[in-house]
Amino acid sequence: MPYLLSSDLPTEPAGLRFRALIERGGILRLPGAHNGMASLQARAAGFEALYLSGAAMTASMGLPDLGIITVDEVSFFIKQVARASGLPVLVDGDTGYGEALNVMHMVRAFEEAGAGAVHLEDQLLPKKCGHLNDKKLATAHDMAAKVNAAAKARRNLYIIARTDAAASEGIDGAVARAKMYMEAGADAIFPEALNTAEMFREFASRMPGVPLLANMTEFGKTPFFTASEFEDMGYRMVIWPVSSLRVANKAQEKLYATLAADGSTKAMVPEMQTRAELYATIGLADYEALDASIVATIVPEPIN
Predict the structure, then answer these.
(1) Closest C-alpha among 199, 205, 213, 189 to residue 140
(2) Does 12 participate in catalysis according to the annotation?
(3) Exposed end of the chain (fewer CB within 10 Å): N or C?
């Protein structure tokens, strides 16, 4: 049904719906959805919540993931993904776009856009993908202040604190930071760029009772693990942040190369979403039926 008049539109805030998915137990699978179409396809595949990656957003804009996009730009992505899918969305909040007041503004803006959760990281600008080298970290105290600001500003938003400290401070440093961030008001912890099963297990064992998020990005430092394997290691959430964008970009690259070489898209037709499939995914017939059901306005005749 169209989101404009759908009988199953969620009435509960996205933050409460996201929290309920975490608290029911098991592991919550959060595939990246870099736009509204991707979110519809993920929902059709049976996923209950989605992830919106900063790297995917910036790459789709033709920009590197260095923390250079704005709150308003991210809010545009949140609106289309949350609106199209109706699912609670975990959003990459990078470093919070500044200090404490900026973080509070981000939290309010993201909630108003429809986000269910956000994660903040303890890097300094210009930040990097968590799986790259030479990341510069904020002090644990400064990051805790941002987490506390986010917790004060939220209405229902689920707050996840990400730490990139394992690469430079080891597990001991990452755990110490994570505990400080939980005391500051975080709901969960995201230990970024762990690179062995042993590291994942050790971190989980030292954060008992704390919901943890794992990042299963491709071409990074983390070996491939399944959602079930992460669950067995003590994790409650797993993201595949840029996978949808990587697949879409590779397909587009092939399309343009074929078109340049052949002067035609005919060879690519078997790999295309058909017109019928596109219309079914976006619910065109439902929108047309809704439009036809609206009674035309009749201007009353003036009374003499």
Answers:
(1) 189
(2) no
(3) C
Domain identity same for 164 and 120? yes
**Alpha-helical segments (H) within the chain:** 14-23, 36-44, 54-60, 71-85, 100-113, 140-153, 166-184, 197-205, 227-232, 243-262, 275-282, 284-293
Domain shared by 200 and 281, yes or no: no
Assess whether 233 and 256 both reside in one domain: no
What's this model's pTM, rounded to 2 decimal places?
0.92
pLDDT digits (tens, 9 = 90+) for 65-101: 888 899 999 999 999 999 999 999 999 999 999 999 9
Could you tell me the residue range of the domain that residue 287 belongs to? 250-293
Please indicate whether residue 105 is annotated as part of the active site: no
Domain count, the chain: 2
- Position 48 in a domain: yes
- For residue 76, give the amino acid letter: F
Active-site residue (options: 17, 51, 181, 236): 51
